[in-house]
Design goal:
single chain; 92 residues; 4-stranded mixed beta sheet; 4 strands; 14% strand; PspA-assoc_dom; PspA-associated domain-containing protein
Length: 92
């Protein structure tokens, strides 16, 4: 799966790692639902850090279509709330 972190570029994440990302995504959604800014910030950074850790960076000149677009680390809770789909940021 090709993932873009806005403002950072693209990484390739193995299909086997999607479950871990879905778990972190659920935690992020829960923080958004209760409108907890501190918890939101912690969960967003945890999700992005995990994508950076497990993802294989694509070259800057790569033009692969992104299957998933994640917000930047400095995104607001309202910005991320607007990006959420029926299944969170990461489709199940």
């Amino acid at each position: 799966m090709i993932v873009r972190i806005m403002g950072e570029g693209q990484v390739e994440v193995a299909e086997g790692d999607i479950d871990v990302l879905n778990s972190l995504d659920s935690e992020l959604e829960a923080a958004i639902e209760i409108d907890d800014e501190a918890q939101f910030r912690t969960k967003l950074h945890a999700l992005l850090d995990k994508v950076r850790q497990i993802g294989k960076p694509l070259p800057d000149d790569s033009l692969e279509p992104s299957e998933l677009i994640l917000p930047p680390a400095d995104a607001s809770i309202d910005e991320v709330r607007g990006m959420l789909g029926d299944s969170g940021l990461i489709p199940g």
